[in-house]
Amino acid sequence: MNKKFFLSLTFFVSIFWVFVFADSGLFSVLIIKGKDLQPVKLTINGFLSEYPANKCSIVDLKDLKPDMFNKIDVVIALTSEAAFYLKKNYHKEKINIYALVLMPDTLGLLGRFIGFSIYPPFDDVFRDFKLKYPNVKKVGLLYNSHSYAVEAASESLIRNSLEPIPLQVDNFNYKYISKSISNVDAVYFFSDAMILDEENLLFLIKSIKSHNRIIISSHRILLQYGVDVAYVIDYFQLGKMMASYIKKSSFLNTYNTYKIFFPSPFVVVTK
Predict the structure, then answer these.
(1) CB 223 within 8 A of CB 267
(2) Residue 231 neighbours by CB distance under 10 Å
């Protein structure tokens, strides 16, 4: 046999077995799609760009069957609907992860599952925001239900030498938001059901813009309603981040079960 051919063959065989053994050590993953939305598709595409497809099963929530969990190590629930199912059908022997969930606090997911936030890292967000709007000193945090995100944003504002001003609203007092706006330079809209209700949203944005205040959000679509700047997670990068983390054995420990990760990098969009 030609020596050069033999060496080449040996090299390719070695590479083949490297990939085989690398894949064999990876977890098997079940991805549950709660909705067939573009962010869900992009997240899955990002995940598969970093994780072998032969280690993944992807299924719509409506098509999910109990036996699909039998040979799975990791379960990823995408969207609130899928995460709610995961909570109701909890498999403690599995590694349970959720992403693209609007209000994990309300669903009772915090402290039980590994989470990936719908918000980018607040330190990076407010660092960029300060550069864009150097005259802003006080930022109102507009929310209905207090959440991990409100707490994280408040702490981050302080680290960035900005003053957080809580602006908690409910279905009764939100119409009086104008009384609170005079004390802030900008308002960050959190993503909860009451705030994002279209009628409430339109009223709140109109009231705040009547005082010429800057409005910040984590949703690109809200730019159409009058928001000034949106800090949006990159869904493809979110999927890649999740895949990279699952590959790390150090990621899958007890501490991380009680942790929520803020995806980065993110996209900054203005009107």
Answers:
(1) no
(2) 23
Is the pLDDT confidence value at 112 over 50? yes
Distances (CA, A) of 174 to 142, 195, 198: 10, 9, 13
The token pair at 160 is: 């960035």
Contact in structure between 55 and 47 (CB atoms under 8 Å) = no
Alpha helix ranges (H) inside 25-97: 38-48, 80-88
* Residue 175 pLDDT exceeds 70: yes
C-alpha span between 268 and 51 (Å, rounded): 27
* pLDDT digit string, tens, across residues 147-171: 999 999 999 999 999 999 999 999 8
Strand-pairing partners, residue 141, are: 166, 188
